[in-house]
C-alpha cells in the first residue's frame, strides 16, 4: 500500500496536476463563500470541461473544488451571518458572534485549521479503512437509516433556547419537506395545484432566504450603520496556543463524527455539522456558552463538515453509492472517464484510486495554506459599508438561488422564506430547527415507510436491531430529558419564582 500511496502522491505532485489541485481549491473557496454557489454547482458547471481531459487531471481538479467548496461556506457564515453553503449553517452559531466581538480573524483561523484537519483525518481513514467501513455501512437497512434521521431530529431540542418553539420550528421544517409528490404513492401533497411545487422545495433557496435574505431585512431595518464586525486590525489569525491545545479533542472527535456521517448516504455535511456541534455542547463543562462566540462551536462544525469529504468518498468508490450530492456528481465524472466504482476499481485501477487519495490529502493541505493566507484580505469584506454590502449580498443571494436550479421560482422561494425568517426571529423562534427538519424530514419519512413495508407493519423491529435501537433510545432520551428540564424550569419553577418575587 505504501508504494501505491507514494506513487499516487508523485503523480499529483506533477506540475500540471498540482496547479489543477491549487486552482480547484481556490475556485471551490470562491464558490463556497458565495451563498448558494455550492461545490456541487461548481463541479456540475466544470464537468463538461473534463470530457477532453485525462482521468487523473480531471478528478484531482474536481476533488480540489470539493474540499475548497465545503470550507468556503464558513467565510460568509462568520463575517456576515449568511452561510455560503448548507454545511456552514451551524458555523454561524458561534462564528458570527466571534466576529462581532472583534475576533473575525481568529474565527476564520479556527475554521481553516478545523477544515484542513477534518479533511486530512477523513482522507487517512479513506485510505486505510475504505473497504472495511463501507462493509459496515452496507449492513445498514431502512431501520438504521430511520434511526439515524430520528437521532438527527432530536438535536433540535439542543439547538433551541425554547423547547416548545424549537419543536414547532422543527415540525414546520418537516412539513415543508413534505411538499411535492409522495415518494411511494405519487400523490401530490401541499402543492395547491402548482406544477412547480410538485418537485418539492429546493433546500438552497430556503437556506439563502432564512439566513441571507432575513439578515438583509434586519440590516435594512437597523439602517445603514457600520458593521459590528471590527476587522480593521486583525492582529491574530490563529488563536493562542493554549486555546489550540484545548481544541485538540474537539478537532479529533469532530473529524471522526464527520467521517462516519459522511459514509451514510444522504446525510451530508449539514447533518455532520449539527451532530458534531450538539456533541461538543453535550460534553462541554460550559454548554451555556455555546452560541455566544465559543471557539469549540466553530471548531466542531467546520471540522465535521469537512471530514464528510473523505467519508462520502468511501461508499462512492467501494460501492458506487454517493455519500452526498457532491459525490453523486463526482460519481458521474468518474463514470464518464470510463471507470465503474466498486471492488474491481481497487483491484484493476489502482493507478486511479491512489491519485484520488493523494489529491484528497493535498487538497486539504492547500485549504489550510490558502485559508490562512487569505484570511486577512477576505475578512475585510466586513469593512464594506452596509449601503454597498446590502445590495451586494442581495445580488449574490439571488444569483445563488437562481443558479441552484435555473428556475425563477427559486427566487420567490428565497424571498418568501427570507420574510418568514425575519418575522420568526422577531418572535424569538430559532431558525436552525427549521433547516434541520427540512433536511431530515424526507429522510425519516422515506426510511420509516420502507422499514414498515419490509416488516409488514411491525414497529417493534426498530428496537430488535441493535444499532437502530441504540440510536432511537438516545433520541427519545434526549427529548424526554430536555422536555423535563423545560417543564421543571418554566412550568414548575414559575410559581416558585412568582412567590419569591412577591415576597421581595
Any overview of this molecule?
The protein is mostly helical. It contains 21 helices and 2 strands. The longest helix is centred in the last third of the chain and has 38 residues. The model has no long low-confidence stretch (mean pLDDT 80).
Q: Look at the helices and sheets and give the structural class.
A: mainly alpha
Specify the overall morphology.
Answer: globular
Q: For the CA atoms, what is the radius of gyration? A: 22 Å
- The H-and-E topology, N to C, reads as HHHHHHHHHEEHHHHHHHHHHHH
* Share of residues in strands: under 5%
Sheet with the most strands, sense and barrel status: 2 strands, antiparallel
Overall pLDDT confidence: 80
- The N- and C-terminal alpha carbons lie at a distance of 74 Å
Q: Provide the spatial order of strands within the biggest beta sheet.
A: 1-2
Number of E-state strands? 2
List keywords for this structure.
mainly alpha, two-stranded antiparallel ribbon, 1% strand, 504 residues, globular, 21 helices, single chain
Record the SSE blueprint.
Elements: H1 2-12, H2 15-33, H3 39-50, H4 55-80, H5 92-100, H6 104-138, H7 142-154, H8 156-159, H9 163-177, E1 180-181, E2 188-189, H10 203-222, H11 241-263, H12 268-283, H13 295-319, H14 325-336, H15 343-348, H16 350-379, H17 386-403, H18 409-426, H19 432-454, H20 461-464, H21 466-503
Antiparallel strand pairs: 1-2
Helix pairs in contact: 1-16, 2-4, 2-16, 3-4, 3-14, 4-5, 4-6, 4-13, 4-14, 4-16, 5-6, 5-13, 6-11, 6-13, 6-16, 7-19, 7-21, 9-19, 10-17, 10-18, 11-12, 11-13, 12-13, 17-18
Amino acid at each position: 500500500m505504501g508504494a501505491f500511496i507514494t506513487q499516487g502522491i508523485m503523480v499529483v505532485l506533477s506540475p500540471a496536476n498540482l496547479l489543477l489541485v491549487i486552482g480547484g481549491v481556490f475556485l471551490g473557496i470562491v464558490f463556497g463563500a458565495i451563498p448558494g454557489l455550492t461545490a456541487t454547482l461548481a463541479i456540475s458547471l466544470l464537468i463538461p470541461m473534463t470530457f477532453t481531459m485525462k482521468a487523473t487531471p480531471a478528478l484531482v481538479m474536481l476533488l480540489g473544488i470539493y474540499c475548497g467548496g465545503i470550507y468556503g461556506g464558513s467565510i460568509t457564515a462568520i463575517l456576515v451571518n449568511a452561510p455560503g453553503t448548507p454545511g456552514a449553517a451551524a458555523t454561524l452559531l458561534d462564528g458570527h458572534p466571534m466576529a462581532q466581538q472583534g475576533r473575525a480573524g481568529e474565527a476564520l483561523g479556527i475554521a481553516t485549521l478545523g477544515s484542513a484537519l477534518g479533511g486530512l483525518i477523513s482522507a487517512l481513514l479513506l485510505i486505510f479503512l475504505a473497504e472495511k467501513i463501507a462493509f459496515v455501512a452496507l449492513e445498514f437497512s431502512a431501520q438504521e437509516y430511520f434511526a439515524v434521521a430520528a437521532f438527527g431530529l432530536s438535536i433540535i431540542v439542543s439547538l433551541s433556547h425554547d423547547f416548545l418553539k424549537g419543536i414547532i420550528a422543527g415540525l414546520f421544517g418537516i412539513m415543508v419537506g413534505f411538499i411535492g409528490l409522495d415518494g411511494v404513492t405519487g400523490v401530490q401533497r401541499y402543492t395547491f395545484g402548482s406544477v412547480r411545487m410538485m418537485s418539492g422545495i429546493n433546500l438552497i433557496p430556503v437556506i439563502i432566504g432564512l439566513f441571507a435574505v432575513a439578515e438583509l431585512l434586519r440590516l435594512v431595518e437597523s439602517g445603514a450603520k457600520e458593521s459590528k464586525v471590527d476587522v480593521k486590525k486583525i492582529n491574530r489569525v490563529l488563536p493562542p496556543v493554549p486555546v489550540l491545545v484545548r481544541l485538540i479533542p474537539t478537532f479529533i472527535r469532530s473529524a471522526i463524527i464527520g467521517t462516519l456521517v459522511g459514509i451514510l448516504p444522504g446525510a451530508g455535511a449539514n447533518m455532520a455539522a449539527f451532530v458534531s456541534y450538539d456533541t461538543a455542547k453535550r460534553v462541554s463543562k460550559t454548554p451555556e456558552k455555546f452560541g455566544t462566540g465559543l471557539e469549540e462551536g466553530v471548531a466542531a462544525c467546520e471540522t465535521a463538515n469537512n471530514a464528510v469529504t473523505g467519508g462520502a468518498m468511501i461508499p462512492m468508490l467501494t460501492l458506487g453509492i454517493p455519500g452526498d450530492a457532491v459525490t453523486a456528481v463526482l460519481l458521474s465524472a468518474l463514470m464518464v472517464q470510463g471507470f465503474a466504482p466498486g471492488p474491481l476499481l481497487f483491484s484493476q485501477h489502482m493507478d486511479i484510486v491512489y491519485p484520488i487519495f493523494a489529491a484528497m490529502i493535498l487538497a486539504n493541505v492547500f485549504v489550510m495554506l490558502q485559508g490562512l493566507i487569505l484570511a486577512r484580505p477576505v475578512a475585510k469584506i466586513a469593512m464594506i459599508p452596509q449601503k454597498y454590502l446590502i445590495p451586494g449580498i442581495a445580488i449574490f443571494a439571488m444569483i445563488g438561488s437562481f443558479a441552484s436550479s435555473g428556475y425563477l421560482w427559486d427566487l420567490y422561494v428565497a424571498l418568501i422564506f427570507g420574510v418568514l425568517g425575519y418575522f420568526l426571529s422577531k418572535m424569538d423562534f430559532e431558525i436552525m430547527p427549521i433547516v434541520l427538519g427540512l433536511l431530515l424530514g424526507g429522510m425519516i419519512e422515506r426510511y420509516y415507510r420502507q422499514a414498515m413495508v419490509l416488516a409488514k407493519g411491525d414497529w417493534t423491529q426498530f428496537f430488535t436491531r441493535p444499532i437502530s435501537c441504540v440510536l432511537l433510545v438516545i433520541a427519545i432520551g434526549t427529548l424526554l430529558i430536555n422536555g423535563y428540564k423545560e417543564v421543571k424550569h418554566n412550568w414548575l419553577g414559575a410559581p416558585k419564582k412568582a412567590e419569591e418575587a412577591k415576597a421581595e
